[in-house]
Write a structure and sequence with these properties.
The structure holds 2 protein chains of 2 kinds. Chain A is built from no helices and 11 strands. Chain A has strands at residues 4-5, 10-14, 19-25, 32-38, 45-51, 56-59, 62-67, 72-77, 86-93, 101-102, 106-111. In chain A, a hairpin with a 2-residue loop joins strand 6 (56-59) and strand 7. Chain A is mainly beta. Chain B is mostly beta strands. Chain B has no helices and 11 strands. The chains are: A mainly beta, B mainly beta.
Chain lengths: 112, 116
């Protein structure tokens, strides 16, 4: 049972435009959500997170939106830069629980 | 650099063998987590240790075991290896045992295991 789903395996965006990565979840107990970025031959790197008491969190070029009623979150990157090319994973957890449940990842390619 | 160190980076072995993967957490972190990433899949949680004690368990096979030592480094032991065990194994660490904003997990670069 895939509790966290990233339905787009890949996404291609032009440099300078907005990149929007999507993630859906099924477990209504999830109350903390994270995005990780992964380059080849490296481990996932924490990018940004959001608690379920918020619907938006912003950090520089990165903004995460949470729609609890739709059980959907998205990551917006604007403007997109070539260095943003990587695989992006969304992850979710239940408050106080230790494990992260990951989506399958979306490979983002930023074209010059 | 996340501060989490995993060794070895690559491991090639045969079916039926036993291997040990090692993880040194970030300085000061008490929790260590192990995840498995099979080809084109998300990371699957295996097990967590907090200050030497097992804290949470995921879908870890009985052939796999882990421990955390007094110096807080951790080892993941995989035995009776099968072809399907070929994967990336990631270790993560965090300051405490719970979830949420104050306990972000930071990942090592992983160990790529190939079972031939």
């Amino acid at each position: 049972d895939q509790q966290v789903k990233q339905n787009s395996p890949s996404l291609s965006v032009q440099e300078g435009r907005i990149s929007i990565l999507n993630c859906d979840y099924t477990n209504s107990m999830f109350d903390y959500f994270l995005w990780y970025k992964k380059y080849p031959a490296e481990g996932p790197t924490f990018l940004i997170s959001i608690s379920s008491i918020k619907d938006k969190n912003e950090d520089g070029r990165f903004t995460v939106f949470l729609n609890k009623s739709a059980k959907h979150l998205s990551l917006h990157i604007v403007p997109s830069q070539p260095g943003d090319s990587a695989v992006y994973f969304c992850a979710a957890s239940v408050s106080g629980a230790q494990k992260l449940v990951f989506g399958q990842g979306t490979r983002l390619t930023i074209n010059p | 650099d996340s501060g989490v160190t995993q060794t070895p980076k690559h491991l090639i072995t045969a079916t039926g063998q036993r291997v040990t993967l090692r993880c040194s957490p970030r300085s000061g972190d008490l929790s260590v987590y192990w995840y498995q990433q099979s080809l084109d899949q998300g990371l699957q949680f295996l097990i967590q240790y907090y200050n030497g004690e097992e804290r949470a368990k995921g879908n870890i096979l009985e052939r796999f075991s882990a421990q955390q030592f007094p110096d807080l480094h951790s080892e993941l032991n995989l035995s009776s290896l099968e072809l399907g065990d070929s994967a990336l194994y990631f270790c993560a660490s965090s300051p405490r045992g719970g979830g949420g904003a104050k306990n972000i997990q930071y990942f090592g670069a992983g160990t790529r295991l190939s079972v031939l």
